[in-house]
Request: fold
Amino acid sequence: MGSPVNLFNADTERSVVGSVLIDPSSLRIVDLDGNHFYLEKNRIIWEIFKTLDQKGIAIDFQTVTDELKRIGKYDYIGGANYLLEAISNTVSALNVESYASEIKDYAMRREILDIARRIASLALDTSRGIQEELHKNVYELSNLFQTPKGAIHWSKFLAALYDDIEKRISEPKEIWGIATGYKKFDQVTGGIQPGELMLFSGVPGIGKSLWVMQAAEQMAAAGYAGAIYSFEMPASQTLRRMVSYKASIATRRLKSGQLEEKEHEKLLQAFEKLSVQPVYFSDAGQSTLSLRADLQRLKIRHGIQWFVFDYMFLASDGNGMTEVERTAMLSRQFKMTCRDLD
Reply:
């Protein structure tokens, strides 16, 4: 095996430092923080840039030198020689965005490697539980690819919106999302929309879970793959209700086993139809982290387009939070999961 590649470029790190010393306005057009730098001396200098900028102090050779001396890091970073070297070896401060992009790419690669090492260590240590720690690492890995982007001119969004509207004009539909099979609901909402979270609430016992499960079955019957996470009731109870609906046989009769011959035939037909539908089911407890990881797996392997979680407050997150805090946290986590997996 060859030696591992160094996941940093000292010249590029030095060039971005030099760019700011040459043109301090460069600091405000790149999205970098100290942790993106591999070399500690560059992390120190970058944090000094940010500190001076926040205090409204001009960034130049002298102010940076004074701050380095104040915190006792002047000799550590190489003193005046390193600062002058950064300035003289920077081709152009106009290239600062390119330098920053390379630095962030290396930082992401180092973080991926760090997570991979943690996962490998977790796999090799048989004395440790694996599930929760693995979900945390997978979640952390997925977040690397969801770095928020800065604002851009809205003409780009308008162009995308125009293309979308033009496409819809060429293919007009009364229901533009995934139809649930409930006509009035679909007419009002346009169906289930990709990337959107839909919450169903109401007093206990009015049939929320049953309604949602029936909608899920109808979406699956139309060929839309999805997942159901049912924690309020075990799988047998949830699916018995679904079979009862599909076969038009009362659940009481399914429990008693007192079926007529025609009902038994309808029961077999219901099982045959449900068994081939693209639905993936779980009644095991989930946190929002483990849910997200499982949904990513199902989306990659099976192309799911919707999921049902019954119900939100049975997620294992938020122990010790007040009800208001937990509601806000869970709502945000579910919303972001829907958006990110769109």
Notes: The longest helix spans residues 96-124. Residues 192-340 form a domain with the Rossmann fold fold (CATH 3.40.50.300). The chain is about 60% helix and 5% strand. The CA atoms of residues 179 and 196 lie 14 Å apart.
